[in-house]
Amino acid sequence: MPPSVPARNSGPKLFGQPWVFVRGVPAMKFLPSEGPPEVAFAGRSNVGKSSLINALLGQKGLARTSNTPGRTQELNFFVPDGFGGDNPALPPLALVDMPGYGYARAPKEKVDEWTELVFDYLRGRATLKRVFVLIDARHGIKANDEEVLKLLDKAAMSYQIVLTKIDKIKPFGIPKLIEATEEKIRKRPAAFPGILATSSEKRAGLDDLQEALGRLAEY
Question: Would you say residue 114 lies in a domain?
Fold first, then answer.
């Protein structure tokens, strides 16, 4: 039987329905069985992952948001509603909100636990199709971002850069920022081409991100 092909123009179909929280995973042994394709959202603490996920799925409060960096402490799994129970079919896609990295104020042992969980997941999940690495548009790629990109390159894990909070910078600066970011990742072997620029507040760039996710889904 030929392998399934990611659907084109499936973004509206995938996101025109409710999504639900499946489970929080504090350690690798609690991961759900490998099934649908997974995409993960990674980024520094307080980069706006949860806010972007809520905006992307059109559901306020689905992913927990907080002004306190380090609030997300587990791998949080989300899927479209209506799967499981009487419907044995696998969902077309699972979305994973990962703990933020680079938050120095948390206890060191807690930071080490989060970091080990994140890195183990990135290296060892066969159904993980792409990691979307979120970068705050106001700050660009920092040293701890570079460390994560290096790990992803070493693991040959496809990743794509998503700029967040572009509403916080001047509009004329966005093209220059995208160009500079593209230049920084140009020679990275696992970097997927194309920088996505988004704003959760203004809903800017969400259609492009939905389209990218839709192409990774299976129908």
Answer: yes
